[in-house]
Amino acid sequence: MSYRAVLLSSMLAAFAVVSVPSPAAAQMSSYGSPRQYYSSWNKHPSKPYHYRRLYYKPENSYVGYKHHYVIYYPSRPKHCYFFNPYKKQFWGRCAIQHGGKYSLLPPEVRRPTIEEIPETAFPAPLEPPPLPESLDRLRLDLPPDDLPLT
Hints:
By secondary structure, the protein is an alpha+beta fold.
């Protein structure tokens, strides 16, 4: 067998191993990138909170990412709050130690500031909702249960 034939067969064998779908394939786009992920924490330069970004693809074929914010207020230390920058409103929260549960606000009580939302407006935590705007209803992955460094 020639050197080229050996090299080609080795490359094809390696490609076959790499291209086997994994269980996480449902979370991956057709381009091989994740459908959703979180950034690390950042401290807002002038306001009393930390934030991280939730990057997501509403569908596999979406090019690039959209984003929402997850906001942690040290004055409200039990929860992280989700903010939609496109609609400029908070839409839910999860506990820091969330256990896979999420509290989705009904649309009529979503507001631009957390102070405008009464504690009683948050329903009991349930399964996470679908990713924003997702057509396939892929569920939101909740953020890591780490806290920002203060």
